[in-house]
């Protein structure tokens, strides 16, 4: 029965997709700050940025419209056509390609005319018909024979094999919108690293991708109620936006929740295909090696061998001797024009030593006798790095895979390279030098007197550790703060307690005001700083003047405004009768109080307050300023310069010098210690000393370098306090070993002459150790060469 052929409907062309619209980014906003020049006496509002980095706020809203492209209709691909039909189809395609000739460069017009005539004859033959059409009309051949796989089958045909359908690929490049988006290129990193920044990453051009605006929880709830498809979205932390999931992604999630394979078309139970079978196949070729019985020696090679043998017998070829050594290859320097002559090793040269082989204690499973005890581990940890016999402790592991990486590997290899590169390995003749001649000639301690040598007075009365002591500018009175929540004022010459003030918290610091015309004592206890006026110790005129000086700040209008950093408050009537005149309440516990040289400003240190750890307070106006927007590290100590508008800030490892007038960083001193404990500035202002918890005292020459001029290590335990004398060339340090070291430190006016530092006296066992704490604070008398120290044994001692 004849079957008529029908042409397959061609798919309609798809419209070109719309391009994405990218919103222009907002320009950066710049802020100009006016510079203010302030005098030496009046600081004003001081603000210094320790980071010295300008933060830029950028607000950008990226709006994009998703362009939807119409999909092409899917074509049903066919497989399994007959090979003969495919051959016929290829022949027809080749004929069509031959018929569609185009004029190319180099072809003649005559040849093109002949080709056009041939084309006309072929068209006439097609109009007359062919035997192939008769076969189709007669019903002997299936109409789908040689069918193009890219076109659908005729609807009347029953030949429609099952084929897996794939989504259509749009070849137009403009439809790909992935290159138009600001793709975040930060990689696979934790996105919480960008929590403190206004941007969330960078695009391919290196520009910042700003964080999209996010509302609060109420905005999220309202957007969820308004959008019925909000449950279909997921938050992309890398882009900072909510992305709506497609139906394919939702189907994958459902399958994963049901413990099923994400791909619905995957069949895990397909029949096994035996690529390598155990059945021996009978093949015409074999890869088995040829047997030796088939080997036929070459007659040509036999003739060549016999020729060599005859030459050896005649002596024309001499074989190599048994001790023959082949010559070494010569290497030439490509970058040297001169002739390379081999240089012999120097007679005094010594080869580099080899590293020692590992011993039993370096094994990952050493014998039990090599493993250290807990006491040996504690002793090893207490030793310094350079004093340890070995830089490791033997450890035992059950298996080699449990052994972690060696943390000092890179450092040891680096030190080894330095040893090979820098260490001189030349034999040197030993010189007979007297060791005593190498010791620097220092003056005798007798020539450096006066300095304190013996204990003169002991002040008893405290029941807790005496953390801080201070001598007033006149040198008559001594104030001490203890952990028994009391502040005592002593008479320096007699050791008699003249006044006792009880506070609510532990006293961490006391400091007399440097102005002799105002009698004021600053006390730091807990979260507040108190200003005390000892009425019984001074004259009525000085007491009245100090009373008016302290109360003048409450009349200032600006002082009544609320300050988030510090609040100035008046004391209660009971505290007023006791002697307290002003309370300054802070946010964190105060560790130190220090005064400016003129007595109007004082600074406080609260290490736990982060950026507001350092605050400067003005006594006459009752104002508080925060000089640093952001601090680098935990602040330990601060101090004003004795004559210039400079401010020193000591963190754990560095000491920074700031100019308060210009509001800029002047210098950063690199101490080289692990943790700074104390700080003091020379009365001339050109030198300073620091003490550290790793037993080191460092002297800095500010005009010389940012590194220590001298590093002294005379204490066996952590240094707690250091102090300069204001008149004599003396400085002292105290530590937890209970000893006090006294040094002679002469600073010369000649800049070409270095300071002279001589240890003159060691006051041993000044304070007994209580719970691993010894001497806690030292202070010099302002006019006499007397040294006062306090310790954890509840005592205060004066040495003269």
UniProtKB/TrEMBL annotation:
InterPro entries: BOP1/Erb1, BOP1_N_dom, WD40/YVTN_repeat-like_dom_sf, WD40_repeat_CS, WD40_repeat_dom_sf, WD40_rpt. One of its GO terms (biological process) is maturation of 5.8S rRNA from tricistronic rRNA transcript (SSU-rRNA, 5.8S rRNA, LSU-rRNA). Residues 1-160 are annotated as: Disordered. WD repeats lie at residues 459-500. One of its GO terms (cellular component) is preribosome, large subunit precursor. One of its GO terms (molecular function) is ribonucleoprotein complex binding. Coiled coil: none annotated. PROSITE patterns: WD_REPEATS_1, WD_REPEATS_2, WD_REPEATS_REGION. It is found in: Nucleus, Nucleolus; Nucleus, Nucleoplasm. Residues 194-452 form the BOP1 N-terminal domain. Residues 51-100, 112-134 have a biased composition (Acidic residues). It holds the Pfam family WD40. SUPFAM superfamilies: WD40 repeat-like. Its main location: nucleus. Keywords: Nucleus, Repeat, Ribosome biogenesis, rRNA processing, WD repeat. Component of the NOP7 complex, composed of ERB1, NOP7 and YTM1. Within the NOP7 complex ERB1 appears to interact directly with NOP7 and YTM1. The NOP7 complex also associates with the 66S pre-ribosome. Belongs to the WD repeat BOP1/ERB1 family. Component of the NOP7 complex, which is required for maturation of the 25S and 5.8S ribosomal RNAs and formation of the 60S ribosome. This is Ribosome biogenesis protein ERB1. The gene is ERB1.
């Amino acid at each position: 029965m004849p079957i008529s052929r029908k042409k397959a409907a061609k798919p309609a062309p798809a419209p070109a997709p719309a391009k994405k619209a990218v919103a222009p980014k907002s320009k950066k906003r710049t802020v100009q700050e006016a510079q203010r020049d302030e005098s030496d006496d009046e600081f004003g509002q001081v603000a210094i940025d320790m980071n010295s980095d300008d933060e830029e706020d950028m607000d950008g809203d990226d709006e994009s419209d998703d362009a939807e492209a119409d999909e092409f209709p899917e074509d049903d691909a066919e497989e399994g056509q007959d090979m003969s039909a495919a051959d016929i189809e290829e022949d027809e395609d080749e004929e069509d390609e031959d018929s569609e000739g185009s004029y190319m460069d180099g072809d003649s017009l005559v040849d093109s005319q002949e080709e056009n005539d041939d084309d006309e004859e072929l068209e006439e033959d097609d109009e007359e018909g062919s035997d192939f059409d008769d076969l189709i009309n007669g019903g002997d051949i299936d109409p789908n024979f040689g069918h193009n796989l890219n076109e659908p089958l005729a609807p009347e045909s029953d030949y429609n094999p099952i084929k897996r359908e794939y989504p259509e690929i749009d070849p137009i490049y403009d439809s790909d919108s992935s290159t138009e988006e600001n793709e975040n290129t930060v990689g696979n990193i934790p996105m919480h690293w960008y929590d403190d920044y206004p941007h969330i990453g960078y695009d391919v051009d290196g520009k910042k991708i700003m964080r999209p605006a996010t509302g609060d929880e109420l905005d999220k709830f309202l957007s969820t109620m308004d959008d019925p498809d909000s449950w279909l979205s997921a938050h992309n932390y890398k882009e900072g936006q909510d992305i709506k999931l497609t139906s394919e992604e939702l189907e994958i999630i459902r399958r994963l929740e049901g413990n099923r394979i994400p791909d619905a078309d995957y069949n895990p139970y397909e029949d096994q295909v035996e690529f390598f079978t155990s059945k021996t196949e009978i093949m015409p070729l074999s890869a088995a090696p040829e047997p030796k019985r088939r080997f036929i020696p070459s007659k040509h090679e036999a003739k060549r061998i016999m020729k060599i043998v005859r030459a050896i017998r005649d002596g024309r070829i001499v074989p190599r001797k048994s001790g023959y050594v082949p010559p070494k290859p010569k290497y030439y320097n490509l970058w040297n024009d001169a002739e390379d002559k081999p240089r012999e090793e120097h007679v005094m040269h010594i080869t580099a030593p080899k590293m020692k082989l590992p011993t039993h204690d370096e094994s990952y499973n050493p014998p039990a006798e090599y493993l250290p005890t807990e006491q040996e581990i504690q002793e090893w940890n207490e030793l310094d790095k350079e004093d340890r016999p070995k830089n490791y402790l033997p450890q035992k592991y059950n298996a080699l895979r449990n052994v972690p990486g060696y943390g000092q590997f890179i450092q040891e290899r680096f030190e080894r390279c330095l040893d090979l590169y820098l260490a001189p390995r030349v034999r040197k003749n030993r010189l007979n030098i007297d060791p005593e001649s190498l010791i620097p000639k220092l003056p005798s301690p007798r020539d450096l007197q006066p300095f304190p040598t013996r204990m003169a007075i002991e002040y008893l009365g405290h029941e807790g550790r005496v953390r801080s002591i201070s001598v007033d500018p006149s040198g008559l009175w001594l104030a001490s703060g203890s952990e028994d929540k009391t502040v005592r004022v002593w008479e320096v010459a007699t050791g008699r307690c003249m006044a006792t003030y009880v506070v609510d918290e532990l006293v961490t610091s006391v400091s007399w005001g440097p102005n002799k015309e105002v009698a004021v004592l600053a006390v730091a206890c807990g979260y507040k700083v108190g200003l005390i006026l000892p009425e019984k110790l001074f004259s009525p005129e000085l007491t009245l003047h100090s009373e008016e000086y302290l109360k003048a700040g409450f009349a200032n209008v600006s002082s009544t405004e609320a300050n988030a950093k510090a609040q100035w408050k008046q004391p209660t009537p009971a505290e007023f009768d006791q002697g307290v005149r002003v309370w300054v309440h802070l946010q964190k516990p105060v560790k130190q109080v220090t005064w400016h040289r003129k007595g109007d400003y004082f600074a406080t240190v609260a290490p736990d307050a982060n950026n507001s750890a350092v605050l400067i307070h003005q006594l006459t106006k009752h104002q508080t300023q925060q000089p640093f927007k952001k601090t680098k590290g935990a602040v330990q100590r601060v101090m004003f310069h004795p004559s210039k508008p400079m401010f020193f800030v000591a963190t754990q490892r560095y000491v920074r010098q700031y100019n308060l007038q210009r509001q800029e960083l002047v210098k950063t001193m690199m101490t080289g210690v692990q943790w700074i404990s104390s700080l003091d500035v020379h009365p001339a202002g050109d030198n300073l000393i620091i003490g550290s918890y790793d037993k080191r005292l460092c002297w800095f020459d500010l005009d010389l370098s940012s590194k220590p001029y001298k590093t002294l290590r005379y204490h066996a335990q952590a240094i707690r306090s250091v102090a300069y004398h204001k008149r004599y060339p003396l400085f002292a340090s105290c530590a937890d070993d209970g000893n006090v070291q006294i040094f002679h430190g002469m600073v010369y006016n000649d800049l070409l002459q270095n300071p002279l530092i001589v240890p003159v006296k060691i006051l041993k066992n000044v304070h007994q150790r209580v719970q691993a704490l010894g001497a806690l604070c030292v202070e010099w008398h302002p006019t006499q060469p007397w040294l006062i120290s306090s310790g954890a044994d509840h005592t205060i001692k004066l040495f003269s």
